[in-house]
Amino acid sequence: MADHESGAAVAATLMYAEASEAGATIARFLDRNRDTLAMLGARLRALSPAMVVTCARGSSDHAATYAKYMVETLLGVPTVSAAFSTVSLYDAHPAQVDAGASTLCIAISQSGRSPDLLATVERQRASGALVVALVNDETSPLADVADILLPLCAGPEKSVAATKSYIASLAGIAAIVAAWRDDDALRADLAALPALVDIAFALDWSSVTRGLQDATNLFLVSRGYGLAIAQEAALKLKETCGLHGEAFSSAEVRHGPMAIVQAGFSVIAFDTGGVAGEDVRALADTFAERGARVWLASHADASHPAIERLPALAVSPELAPIVMIASFYRMVNALALARGYDPDQPPYLAKVTRTR
Ligand SMILES: N[C@@H]1[C@@H](O)[C@H](O)[C@@H](COP(=O)(O)O)O[C@@H]1O
Least packed by Cβ within 10 Å: which of 6, 86, 107, 256? Predict the structure, then answer.
């Protein structure tokens, strides 16, 4: 493994230490919340919510993207992201939920402290929604306001950039879906996740670290269940590396943005398997043919010869994003240092941001 991926400075950051605990965090989450999840599953099957509303910011909102794809695909329930300003600035009131059409509100937050998130969750609750909170800080106001609390069990997360709490949030969403569907196969796959996340964290993505050292911008592309990690990767590149990354689905990028993907333009493509992965790989081939610099994280066999491959584990498409982002986190910590940034203390950012 290259020095800048394995050297002492790289492993000395809080971000590295916290990201390396992601597998253990998932194991703690599943263990601690087993009974609550079983109770929640039964309650959701009885309630049969007509809609899910997600409340989150930043990395946590990318976990909400994952919730949208998981819930809409595996449960068929429309899942929308709450726009906090409608409540916190414009004082909007969500329509009162009647007994026949319940709403499930899923709030996701490491800190559980942003006022606009709290205002929106409180109003969802007042309108009759069942509020489930995936939150790391159990002393937070969000933990208090929730009907059902699912602690993320990540322990203290001090690096400004969220890592283990994001991975735990993704696993938490998959666990809610498994409980709601009473899906033994998904539960079994979840139980195997901690070990896979540990293995993924050790994979060598150092060709990206070398290739993006002097980059100024790039696209991050995935699709379906994987879109959430393309969004998360783009945020991490901004937060920790001062690098402008923009995330798109491999469908959306074809509707205009790809006009700027020309020779030399950088793209990281996340193939998280299944039919969505096929589309991501086809797009990666198209971009490589144009002369773009394309990294493809994938466990599939073939791709365009110019594509730089990043190792990935064979995991079900539903859970592959949770595993793949662990490999990205290790790489992006090293990239931040290589670019002269401290990934734990990005300029202008705080660990807990309170927006109104
Ligand atoms: N810099 C952090 C982000 O990394 C984090 O994702 C966001 C959401 O935080 P929380 O999950 O605590 O609500 O807050 C801050 O802005």
Answer: 256
